[in-house]
Design a protein that fits this description.
Radius of gyration: 28 Å
Largest sheet: 9 strands, antiparallel
Number of helices: 19
Bound molecules: alpha-L-fucopyranose
GO molecular function, one term: alpha-L-fucosidase activity
CATH class of the domain at 31-78 and 128-337: Mainly Beta
InterPro entries: 6-hairpin_glycosidase_sf, 6hp_glycosidase-like_sf, AFCA-like_C, Alpha-L-fucosidase, GH95_cat, GH95_N_dom
Domain Glycosyl hydrolase family 95 catalytic: 297-701
Organism: Algoriphagus machipongonensis
CATH topology of the domain at 31-78 and 128-337: Beta-galactosidase, Chain A, domain 5
Protein name: Alpha-L-fucosidase 2
Number of strands: 34
Length: 826
C-alpha cells in the first residue's frame, strides 16, 4: 500500500505515531522489576547500569550529549599461563609447625613469609576493553529524561526529549549472538545523528577503522608482576542505519539524519583455557559480528527475551507493594531504612539473579569480584577470585534460586584448580590430592598470595569443592557425582597427608592454618595457628562429602573408612569463656573484635554443622559470636550475616542486615551498603554482597539443610504476607509455589524431580491427606543425611542461651519422580 514514494512521509508519520503509542503503553505497563532514575549517570560508574551475557559486560551511563558505554570481556586479563608455588615451603614446614605448636606464631610467620608466600605472581588483573562514546550534537538541553534497567527483560533504556523529539536508546547483551547491541530511535523520522568512537585504557592497543567500516580495537593485555601479558583481544563495532547517511573518518563513524540506527559490538580474545591461548581473536570477533549484523535490533531483542527469561522467570518473589515503589530507585534506596518499601527487597533479590545470569554463563569465566563489570586497569583486589569467601558467595544463589546451569563456570574453575593444585600440594607440602590457597585468577594459580595472614590459608580446595557436592545434591544426578568424585577425593586426600597430630591434645590438626584474615591479639597479631575452627570445619566437610559420595557410588570403601577414622580425631568445636564459638584452638577470642570475617561460622552457613534445632549449645555460641562481632560490616560480610541469621531462624535480625545492605553507601557507620545502581558496596563495589543477600533472602523463606526442607524458617515481622515460586531444594525438589498470609502457609505446591521422602518443617499444621503423615525417625532421603557434629567442649565460664524457637510441625511425604504435590494447610 505504501510502495509509492510519495506516501513515505505519511507512512513515517503513522509509524512514529504508533511508536509513540506503544512507548506510552510500555511506560504504563512498566515492569515493577525496573531500576530507574531521573538523571544520567554523569561521571559516576556506580550510577551506570550493567548489562551482560556472561561473556561480555557493559555499563551504560545514559549521558545525554555524550553517551558512554564501558565494555568488558570475560577473558581480558593481564598476564598469561603461570604458576606461583613456592617450593621452599616443603623444607621449612617442620620448623614452621614446631614454632606454631610452641606458641611462637610471630617467628613462624616470619619464616613462612620467606618460604611459603609466593615469590611470583600474586594473581593477575581482570581488565577493561574500552569505551564506546556516542556524541549527539545539540542534545544539551533536554526534558523528560528517564534512564532504566528492566531486569525482567534485560534491557537498558534511556529516553529524553529535545525540541519536541523523543529520543530512545536501548541496549542489550545478546546471549545468542554474543554482541552488545545499542538501538537508537526518535519519535520523528530523520532525527538520529551522532558520532561514535572508541577509546581504550589498554596501553598495548590500537584503534582503527577497518576496510569493512568497523571500528576496531586490537590489543594485547599488560604484563604484571613478571608475567607477560598474552591475551590478545579484538573489539569490532559496526553501525547499521536506516535512512540518513553513514560516513567514517579516521577513528570515528558519523550517522546523519537517520530514522534509526543499531550499533553492534563484538569482542573476542585468543583465550581457549587457562593453559591454551591458541584461539584467533580476529576471526572470532568477526564471526560474532557478521552473524549479529544479519539481524535487526528487534530480532536480537526477541531472541534475547526468550533466552534471558528462560532463566529469570523460574523464580518470582512478592513481599507486597506500597506507594514507596513509585519513586526512582535511588530515592527508594535513600528511604528504605525509614520507610515501608517491601518491593525494593524483591527488586534487589531479583537483581541478584539478573546479575548472575548476566555475569556467569556456561562456557564463560565465573563471576569475579566485580562480576564482569570493571573499568579499572588495576581494579580493587585485581577483580579476581578470592576463595576464602567471596567467589563462593557469588554462587550461593545459583542452585537454590533455580539457576543451576549458571554454576557451571565456577564448577569448571574448581576442576581446573584441582588440576593445577595437585602440583601445589606436592611441591609445597609433600601431600597427595590437591589444594588451593585464598585466591585464584584466570590462570588458576593455587599458590599463596598477598600478605602472610591472608595467603597461607589452605582451605581453598576443601571449600570450593563443596560447590560440586552441592550441585549434585540439588540435582541428584549420579553420573555427575561419578564425574566429580576424583575432585572431591583429591580435596580430602590433601588433608589425609597434611593433618598432623597435636603434641599436647588428642587431635589431628591443620598446621600451619589460619582463620581467614583475622589475627588474635593473643598471638601478637599473627594469624598463624594450628587447628583453627574453620580449618576443622572445612576438613570435616571435605571428609564427610567423600564418605557420603563413596557410599552412594559404592566405591572406595577403604578410603572412606580412613576418612571416618581421621574425621573422628578432628578437634570438636569449642565454646569459650565469653560464651562465643571459639575461632582459635585456645580460648583467646576478644569479644570486642568486630572483624568482617567470621570464618568459624562457616559451620552454620554455608555448611550445616551448627543448627538451633540439632546443636543448641553451638547455636548459643554462634549467637554470642554474631552479637559480639556486631552488624556493621563490609558488603559481603553483611550478606553472609543475612544467611547466618536466617540459619539462626531469626528473621527480624536477618532483616536488619537487609536494611543495612539497602542503605546508600556511606550511611552505615563505616560499613557497606549499596550504590545508586544497587551494586553492593564493600566499599568499593564488590558483587559478592549482591549475591550473598539474594541467597540470604531465599534462606529466610526456604531452607534445605538440617535433614529437611524448612519453609518460612526466618520470616521477619514485616513480611507476614507474601509468595515465592520456583525455589529449588536438595534432593531434586522444587517449591513450585509457596504463598503465606499472617505468617501461615496458604498454598504449597512441591515438585519432586527424582522421588524420595519429602520431609517438611512448616510453621502451621497441614492436612494429613494424600499420603502426608507426621514425621518420625530420621529422614531416609539420602540427600538429607546430616553428618553428626561432635559435642562441643564448653568453657565452665560460658553462658548458654537456649534457643527460643517458634512452634513448627514436621511431616513426611513419600514422593514419586516427576510428580507435583499440592499440600494443604489445616
Ligand atoms: C578479602 C576480604 C576483603 C575483600 C577482599 C576481596 O580479602 O577480607 O574484605 O573482600 O577479599
Amino acid at each position: 500500500m505504501f510502495t509509492d514514494p510519495k506516501y513515505y512521509p505519511m507512512r513515517n508519520v503513522i509509524c512514529y505515531f504508533l511508536v509513540l503509542l506503544s512507548l506510552q503503553s510500555y511506560a504504563q505497563e512498566r515492569s515493577p522489576l525496573t531500576l530507574w532514575y531521573e538523571q544520567p549517570a554523569g561521571e559516576v560508574w556506580t550510577n551506570a547500569l550493567p548489562i551482560g551475557n556472561g561473556k561480555l559486560g557493559a555499563m551504560v551511563y545514559g549521558n545525554v550529549e555524550n553517551e558512554l558505554i564501558q565494555l568488558n570481556e570475560h577473558t581480558v586479563w593481564s598476564g598469561g599461563p603461570n604458576r606461583n608455588d613456592n617450593p621452599d615451603a616443603l623444607a621449612a614446614l617442620p620448623e614452621i609447625r614446631r614454632l606454631i605448636f610452641e606458641g611462637k606464631q610471630k617467628e613462624a610467620e616470619e619464616l613462612a613469609s620467606k618460604t611459603i608466600q609466593t615469590k611470583k605472581s600474586n594473581g593477575q588483573k581482570f581488565q577493561p576493553v574500552g569505551d564506546l562514546n556516542i556524541a549527539f550534537e545539540g542534545h544539551t538541553t533536554f526534558t523528560n529524561y528517564r534512564r532504566e534497567l528492566d531486569i525482567e527483560r534485560a534491557v537498558s533504556k534511556v529516553t529524553y526529549e529535545v525540541d519536541g523529539v523523543v529520543y530512545t536508546r536501548e541496549a542489550i547483551a545478546s546471549f545468542a549472538e554474543n554482541v552488545i547491541a545499542v538501538h537508537l530511535t526518535a519519535s520523528k523520522p530523520g532525527m538520529i545523528s551522532f558520532i561514535a568512537s572508541m577509546t581504550t585504557p589498554q596501553p598495548n592497543a590500537s584503534i582503527a577503522l577497518n576496510s569493512d567500516n568497523e571500528l576496531a580495537i586490537s590489543g594485547t593485555t599488560t604484563d604484571h608482576e613478571g608475567v607477560k601479558g598474552k591475551i590478545k583481544f579484538k573489539s569490532l563495532t559496526k553501525i547499521k542505519n536506516i535512512g540518513g547517511k553513514l560516513t567514517s573518518t579516521g577513528t570515528s563513524i558519523a550517522v546523519k539524519n537517520a530514522d534509526e540506527a543499531t550499533i553492534y559490538i563484538a569482542i573476542a580474545t585468543n583465550f581457549n583455557n587457562y593453559l591454551d591461548l591458541e584461539g584467533d581473536e580476529n576471526s572470532r570477533a568477526k564471526g560474532f559480528l557478521v552473524n549479529a549484523t544479519t539481524q535487526s535490533f528487534n530480532d536480537l531483542l526477541k531472541t534475547n527475551l526468550v533466552d534471558y527469561q528462560n532463566y529469570f522467570n523460574r523464580v518470582s518473589l512478592s513481599l507486597g507493594e506500597t506507594d514507596a515503589s513509585k519513586l526512582p530507585t535511588d530515592e527508594r534506596l535513600r528511604n528504605f531504612r525509614t520507610g515501608n518499601d517491601p518491593s525494593l527487597v524483591s527488586l534487589y533479590y531479583q537483581y541478584g539473579r539478573y546479575l548472575l545470569i548476566s555475569s556467569s554463563q556456561p562456557g564463560g569465566q565465573p563471576a569475579n569480584l566485580q562480576g564482569i563489570w570493571n573499568k579499572e586497569m588495576s581494579p580493587p583486589w585485581d577483580s579476581k577470585y578470592t576463595i576464602n569467601i567471596n567467589a563462593q558467595m557469588n554462587y550461593w544463589p545459583a542452585e537454590k534460586t533455580n539457576l543451576a546451569e549458571l554454576h557451571e563456570p565456577f564448577l569448571k574453575m574448581v576442576s581446573e584448580m584441582a588440576e593445577a593444585g595437585e602440583e601445589t600440594a606436592r611441591v609445597m607440602y609433600g601431600a597427595r590430592g590437591w589444594m588451593a590457597h585464598h585466591n585464584t585468577d584466570i590462570w588458576r594459580i593455587t599458590g599463596p598470595v598477598d600478605a602472610i595472614f591472608w595467603g597461607i590459608w589452605s582451605g581453598g580446595g576443601a571449600w570450593t569443592s563443596q560447590h560440586l557436592w552441592d550441585h549434585f545434591q540439588y540435582s541428584g544426578d549420579m553420573e555427575y557425582l561419578k564425574s566429580i568424585y576424583p575432585i572431591l577425593k583429591g580435596a580430602a586426600m590433601f588433608y589425609v597427608d597434611f593433618l598432623v597430630e597435636h603434641p599436647d591434645k588428642p587431635w589431628l590438626v591443620v598446621n600451619p592454618g589460619t582463620s581467614p584474615e583475622n589475627a588474635p591479639a593473643a598471638h601478637d597479631g599473627s594469624s598463624l595457628d594450628a587447628g583453627t575452627t574453620m580449618d576443622n570445619q572445612l576438613v570435616f566437610d571435605a571428609f564427610s562429602t567423600v564418605i557420603q559420595a563413596s557410599e552412594l557410588l559404592k566405591i572406595d570403601q577403604a578410603f572412606a573408612d580412613t576418612l571416618q577414622l581421621m574425621r573422628d580425631q578432628l578437634p570438636p568445636m569449642q565454646i569459650g569463656k565469653h560464651g562465643q564459638l571459639q575461632e582459635w584452638l585456645d580460648d583467646i577470642d576478644d569479644p570486642n573484635d568486630h572483624h568482617r570475617h567470621i570464618s568459624h561460622l562457616y559451620g552454620l552457613y554455608p555448611s550445616n554443622q551448627i543448627s538451633p534445632l540439632r546443636t543448641p549449645e553451638l547455636y548459643s555460641a554462634s549467637k554470642n559470636t554474631l552479637i559480639q562481632r556486631g552488624d556493621v560490616s563490609t558488603g559481603w560480610s553483611m550478606g553472609w550475616k543475612v544467611n547466618w541469621w536466617a540459619r539462626m531462624l531469626d528473621g527480624n535480625h536477618a532483616y536488619k542486615l537487609i536494611q543495612n545492605q539497602l542503605s546508600p553507601v556511606g550511611s552505615n557507620q563505616g560499613g557497606g551498603g549499596s550504590y545508586n545502581n544497587l551494586f553492593d558496596a564493600h566499599p568499593p563495589f564488590q558483587i559478592d554482597g549482591n549475591f550473598g543477600c539474594t541467597s540470604g533472602i531465599t534462606e529466610m523463606l526456604v531452607q534445605s539443610a538440617n535433614g529437611e526442607i524448612h519453609l518460612l524458617p526466618a520470616l521477619p515481622d514485616v513480611w507476614q504476607d507474601g509468595s515465592i515460586t520456583g525455589i529449588r531444594a536438595k534432593g531434586g525438589f522444587e517449591v513450585v509455589e509457596l504463598d503465606w498470609e499472617d505468617g501461615q502457609i496458604e498454598k504449597l505446591v512441591i515438585k519432586s524431580n527424582i522421588g524420595g521422602n519429602l520431609r517438611l518443617r512448616v510453621p502451621n499444621s497441614l492436612l494429613l491427606e494424600n499420603g502426608l503423615k507426621e514425621a518420625s525417625g530420621s529422614n531416609p532421603n539420602p540427600f538429607y543425611q546430616v553428618p553428626v557434629t561432635a559435642d562441643p567442649i564448653v568453657s565452665p565460664q560460658a553462658k548458654i542461651i537456649p534457643p527460643n524457637l517458634g512452634e513448627t510441625s514436621v511431616y513426611d511425604l513419600n514422593t514419586n519422580a516427576g510428580e507435583i504435590y499440592e499440600i494443604v494447610s489445616k
